[in-house]
Amino acid sequence: MCGIAVIVCGVRIELSTLSSPLKPPFERLQFSVEDVKCVLSQRGPDSVGEKKNFLQPKLPTCAQESVSGEGTCNLENATTSGELHFIGSTLQLRGTSPIIQPLVDSSGNILAYNGEVFGGIELSSFDNDTEVLLESLEKANDLVPDVLSMIKGPWAIIYWQESSRTLWFGKDAFGRRSLLVHWPTVEDPRFLLSSASPASSVANGSGLDSGNGDSIHRFWEELPCGVYSISFGVSGSGICGEVTKHEWRNNMWKELIEWERSLVVPRPEDLSMSSIQEEKDNALSTFSGFAQTVLVVLKESVRRRTSLHNIFQGETEVVPVAVLFSGGLDSMILAALLDQCLDPKYEVDLLNVSFDGPNAPDRISAKAGIKELKKIAPLRRWKLVEIDADLPKLTIETKRVMSLINPADTYMDLNIGTALWLAARGDGWIHEESDNQEDSQRIRYKSDARILLVGAGADEQCAGYGRHRTKYRNGSWAALDQEMKLDMQRIWKRNLGRDDRCIADNGKEARFPFLDEDVIKTLLDIPLWEIADLEQPSGTGDKKILRQVNMLMTIFNSPRNFINQKCYLKVAKMLGLHEVAKMPKRAIQFGSRIARESNRKNFGSNRAANQASAGSVRFNAPCVYFGHMHGDMIISFQRAESEIGGNESALQALRELIIFPFLYPLEARTLGLKWSRGLLLYGPPGTGKTSLVRAVVQECNAHLIVLSPHSVHRVHAGESEKVLREAFAEASSVSDNKPSIIFIDEIDVLCPRWQESKMLVLLRSSLHSWTRTSLHHLHSPPRVVVVASTNRVDAIDPALRRAGRFDTLVEVSTPNEEDRFKILLLYTKKVNLDASVDLQAIATSCNGYVGADLEALCREATISASKRSVDSLILTLQDFKIAKSVVGPSITRGIAVEIPKVTWDDVGGLKDLKKKFQQAVEWPIKHSAAFTRMGISPMRGILLHGPPGCSKTTLAKAAANAAQASFFSLSCAELFSMYVGEGEALLRNTFQRARLAAPCIIFFDEADVVACKRGEEKPKWMVLKKLRCSTNATW
């Protein structure tokens, strides 16, 4: 295993032969050569080397055939030079003496190779395959694709051919070794190849983002499988090169890539024959033929990958090989075959990862599996390395894995990558063997094996995924075959590159016996109905051929080598391999329980994760750079959604205010458009107005100046105006490369209505003056914008709200259920949640809570948990219940509001009335989407009438409880007041707060007192008429 890279600078590279030109926006990342060397040294800890090659005059012109090396060139007009910087690191696995990459031969050829040669090129037991490959390439001249097409085994290569001045690069047809590529862009014209992404090149922004990430071209891409070349020459603008992709010269590769199975759809007699064979008495007759063939090629595949003469031992003898071990079918087969291929004196490490201690499914099956292996191979010392992990504590490790899986960026990739990275590190516990099993001790252990056998490829080739069963049910055999073909043709992009990078980062080499060329060819030649029988239940029909291989190995591996059925059944019963053969497919993220822990950490619960399709949600929205949008200015932004929850409309409005003038200056000039310079955010306290501004400022890389009443107000005349002038001068003096935002908090205090505060007339006039001046003098670029916030939009001078000043008004209202859930996710992402905590249910029950209330709720829950136990701070559902009894919705303080605890069961009888209530109140709230889709307008008012004591109030409370709606109760006594207008004000405020706490029910007790008949002449009824008019207007 090696790490390889090349950085090509000062060369214009033409990509037209590969695909259509890439269009912006592009991701732009910054890292140094040392960063590249650092990440490669993790893959190859034995040595790190580098070699620079300068492209000086000797180059052919671009129009000539440079691969052949023929022709002359004239570089008198060439004024620029290019540079190729090769970097290589080595994990020594073959040969008798260590080597340092990149290798340079006597002809000036440079080779950086990451791979193994298991066939195709002749090697002796003591040869190093990289050195032999360099000799073969030197002899090949322009036949480099022919040499690479002969190699059997995984490889990725970077090769400089001095004679033709050509850079060759590529990887094997299935992409079993990682090689990332950065194609040149306007923003970053370098051409880069690397085995892994440097850690410093990953964007720092994080958060749930499954939106527009696909429209951004990532800096790194997985290099598609194949052989490529860049032939360098000279054009009028300097040194140039054109990328060419070459065809495979070996027909075997073409067949395997096309992955066309000849026997897909069975005839009726084929299925009946298969069914008859399974019922035969002789066990060997069932497994003869196909299963035995697969067993032979699998064993040879394992032997190639574990032969000791292919493993560089160095001065000390260590455990040579480990197995990624879950106790499932694939890993059990690999472990059993490894026992047959490796000398019994060597120990074998079985690496098992768990995020749930001994309770993870993979840990349970691994313990059962090692018992079976000890019975099959009692002479071998098997070490089950129990690697226990706690996801919330893996902060540094998670960041490391994020960089390794790049360009993959979903939570599913992160979960799988984390599990593989921990397994490859091999730092865990083993049980020390003793005569008395009860006295066995669990001791610390770290695996030093440099080769890790992984079962990748088995599920793709043998229909082991759940989607294979779905395709079969929906489209039968042909659809199943097409899905398996698709999996094999994209395995390089979805799995192998990521897995290779995560495993190799610990100085281990991942080897995939199921992806051996002979194994792939053998499985492809077998009829599909012999590979899998998905009419059978899970654990029986999927990976049918491998289950038969497992049964067959039971017989061949048994000490007595039983043949007849009775003996076979005894062996199977003795070894317990019937259970192994019937185990269903279980992916590592589920078997290790990391997916469950990740869902709780990032989504609150498994249910919420499933609703959000967590597997496809991106954990990292890349940092995007828009180049040359305004001269040489570059605007970079990270998604603000990682800091706040909800309020999408306000976010978009702020982005448009700040970013659009920089994105579309030409369009604005053409249309004579003047951009808005002011935006007013209004809404109840605690809804996140200030947080919104700060998050978007950070996202847009803008300069922020905050003004508030206490910072502006001064005692002496003229000082307040001076503060305003200095703030605007500071905003105007910021570099042209970034916008400036002046944020005025509580602007209603600084600029009230004229009649409300005549003492602040001077200050208000000054504020108007500098606002008008700033908007008048800033035409291009529109770098300074003003954002203000207020809780009382009606208290602001209307002159400020006209067009040309604060002409954009955005309401930041109380969050709905979905927004509350997002806010809870943000506030609980750094704490441990118990399995009983369902954040979605908590969000549903928190009607009327704003962001500040939810923050206080989480804080109180944390305090409750710390009081209960300081050692293990895990928040339970009871902690949130206690917190909710302390923290209520701030917008309803001063008014009695609650979700009643009365249920329908507390109301005896009245079945018809309950049904009508459910239809009128509960259904419109719980099934609002269905009502909207069918165009049904829900009822807005319900009148309950009847004699006293017939449960009118209780029914209303039960309806509020069933709909989880806030309950406002008003009686006529509360509406009467000796002062004019107070009753109307109370009624108006109640309706305003009810809208903020929606969904809610307002209950008027004794409504006949307020809603009396018209025509009454008594004075008290005149008051009631006013209240009735106010009620009608408010409603």
From TrEMBL:
Pfam families given in the database record: AAA (PF00004), AAA_lid_3 (PF17862), Asn_synthase (PF00733), GATase_7 (PF13537)
Residues annotated as domain Glutamine amidotransferase type-2: 2-233
Keywords, ordered alphabetically: Amino-acid biosynthesis, Asparagine biosynthesis, ATP-binding, Glutamine amidotransferase, Nucleotide-binding
Cited Gene3D superfamilies: 1.10.8.60, Glutamine Phosphoribosylpyrophosphate, subunit 1, domain 1, HUPs, P-loop containing nucleotide triphosphate hydrolases
MF terms in GO: asparagine synthase (glutamine-hydrolyzing) activity; ATP binding; ATP hydrolysis activity
Organism, as annotated: Brassica oleracea var. oleracea
GO BP: asparagine biosynthetic process
Alphabetized SUPFAM superfamilies for the sequence: Adenine nucleotide alpha hydrolases-like (SSF52402), N-terminal nucleophile aminohydrolases (Ntn hydrolases) (SSF56235), P-loop containing nucleoside triphosphate hydrolases (SSF52540)
PROSITE patterns attached to this UniProt entry: GATASE_TYPE_2
SMART domains (alphabetical): AAA
Name used for this protein in its record: Glutamine amidotransferase type-2 domain-containing protein
Entry keyword Cell division: no
